[in-house]
Automatic annotation (TrEMBL), chains A, B:
CDD domains for this protein: HTH_LacI, PBP1_LacI_sugar_binding-like
Source organism of the structure: Kribbella qitaiheensis
Protein's UniProt name: LacI family transcriptional regulator
Domain HTH lacI-type: residue ranges: 3-57
Gene3D superfamilies: 3.40.50.2300, lambda repressor-like DNA-binding domains
Record flagged with keyword Protein transport: no
Keywords: DNA-binding, Transcription, Transcription regulation
GO molecular function: DNA-binding transcription factor activity; transcription cis-regulatory region binding
Domain HTH cro/C1-type: 4-47
SMART domains (alphabetical): HTH_LACI
InterPro entries xref list: Cro/C1-type_HTH, HTH_LacI, LacI/GalR-like_sensor, Lambda_DNA-bd_dom_sf, Peripla_BP_I
Keyword check for Transcription regulation: yes
Length: 331, 331
DNA sequence: TTGTACGCGTTATCAC
DNA sequence: GTGATAACGCGTACAA
């Protein structure tokens, strides 16, 4: 069994209370006493009992990363991986641990909400891309510090969130295509129940409207297969496209294949720009020109905001990061 | 503040002890009493306090997923994503939560070990691909239920582990190339400090030896860049290769590009087989023929074994899963 | 500055 | 079958 405060106190020749003060860095302990206690701590290999501490402080020193979608796609998503890295990096110097909460099956919302309400964690980061989930609204109203990655669709109450400027990112992509002299621009958009899908389409539409150019849109679901269907449909309806903005890299790889099967060359005949700058962006021929989002940074900020809220800060509203166009071979 | 056992007991007109029995499903409670208590629980929205419970039971109802490598690559690795899905699926019906432990920077081993020794979790799953880490040995000897994903290199004590049969998987790939009439086979191997790197190379070497064929090996580091270097070196030294086994998909995508830049066609001139069946396998042209490993299943089994060990089972030794060849366009 | 004593919410061991 | 009651390890008023 691991040693307790009591044993450390006995060895150091002081009381439990004093040891506790040393452990928690109280300023009013004599240097000599501190030294003695610390020696005892090292000698015994003392580690505070988290449960006992949590019981009295009502802090668990752990935060949750919630993925309220049974949709397994989230994991293979490089976005999620980046968020994870950022969050864990920000938490590292802290005493807080990261608890992963994944909704195993659709409709198991209550279990999740109960857990969060049960005081098992000090706060939660919600990583959800799909809107319309009525869970989001409930999550937002929990009496618990919460931060959303991406502004949650359909949630009316003010919440703290961190996101990338998808509209601006899409604009950059489309404007880049224009700068290359392309005028017949189409887009493979994402699902309209995700902010990323909506906003990136909006960015495209805004530029097209400003330029007085006609739109050409097909919808995919952010998967390779969906992207393929959408690209086929798009080129079927608009065979003369000379530029294409695809709402994410995975669909863009499919578009590349479709274009080549149609006997057209990238980027000579059709220039293609993706979004994400994920691993797949460099596995294609030619490599993808794409819009990079600072995912790790997003995760870091998410954790920082949450920790601040846990410590009483009153932060609400979105915090927006900008994107960067990464130019490779496809456009 | 959330309600306590005491309050539930008061409302139900019974004692704390009885409520506790109901909550924990003790068989010896009168049905009527159970009903009354359950009603009170629902009415109050009672949720057991984890800290208080952990304090007395000495069980935390949480297990750790440990990534003892500051190497950020792990996250973008589809392998990790699959493991995560499997583990969390297996944990879902349980009361156990998943705590993610990531070593923020090299050499911070002590912090990790202290945490694990501190009784904050009931057990741990170690996801480590690199060997040579002296942490692994220490982890293996912790007085805590532990399971390794992949047999830990350099660890002498017997441990529980779950892995895929990398040697057999590589054999399948190479034998498939042979069955296609290819005889000049090369391989882009992974790093020799990872079991996956070593074993996949071994599989290739075994088949070549059996067939009395000469080896052609170049080493990469499982990244696209590393794969490119290795492929260039390999074709420089062996320009006449007609078949290539690459130890992972990411490097295989780079090999595809190199081969095409060399003016040779895939699969007509050079047939290529990868390993992993990750997302990138379908983003290339042609799509990759590759060896799929059941990552989700691996994760599930990892969690199952850990839970069994926590409950007292004495499981040690490796558990091996088999792979499957997925035939696409590259071979 | 340090020690004493109580309470945090549960589970477990007794009696009844 | 059910109810007292003693731990579990720690933080913190309060007293000294």
């Amino acid at each position: 069994m691991s040693p307790t405060l009591e044993q450390v106190a006995a060895l150091a020749g002081v009381s439990r209370a004093t040891v506790s003060r040393v452990v928690n860095g109280s300023p009013k302990v004599l240097p000599d006493t501190v030294a003695a206690v610390e020696r005892a701590i090292v000698e015994l290999g003392y580690v505070p009992n988290r449960a006992a501490r949590a019981l009295v402080t009502r802090r668990t020193d752990s935060v949750a990363l919630v993925v309220p979608e049974p949709d397994s796609r989230v994991f293979s998503d490089p976005f999620f991986a980046g968020i994870l890295r950022g969050v864990s990096a920000a938490l590292a110097p802290t005493s807080s641990q990261l608890v992963l909460l994944i909704e195993p099956s659709a409709g198991d919302d209550q279990r999740l909400l109960r857990y969060l309400r049960g005081g098992h964690v000090d706060g939660a980061i919600i990583v959800s891309h799909h809107g319309r989930d009525n869970v989001l609204q409930e999550l937002a109203q929990l009496p618990l510090p919460i931060v959303f990655s991406a502004r949650p669709l359909g949630v009316e109450v003010p919440v703290a969130s961190v996101d990338v400027d998808n509209v601006a990112g899409a604009r950059t992509a489309v404007e880049y295509l224009l700068s290359k002299g392309r005028r017949k621009l189409g887009t493979v958009a994402g699902p309209v129940d995700m902010t990323a899908g909506i906003d990136r389409l909006t960015g495209y539409q805004l530029v097209m409207a400003e330029e007085g150019l006609p739109e050409a849109v097909a919808y995919g679901d952010f998967t390779a297969d969906g992207g393929e269907q959408a690209a086929l449909k798009l080129f079927d309806e608009h065979p003369d496209l000379d530029g294409l903005f695809v709402a994410n890299d995975l669909m863009a790889t499919a578009a590349l294949r479709v274009i080549s099967q149609l006997g057209r060359r990238v980027p000579q005949d059709v220039a293609v720009v993706g979004f994400d700058d994920s691993v797949v962006a460099t596995t294609t021929t030619p490599k993808l020109t794409t819009v990079r989002q600072p995912v790790v940074q997003l995760g870091t900020r998410l954790a920082e905001i949450l920790l601040a809220k846990i410590n009483g800060a009153d932060l609400t509203g979105p915090e927006i990061f900008s994107t960067e166009l990464i130019i490779r071979g496809s456009a």
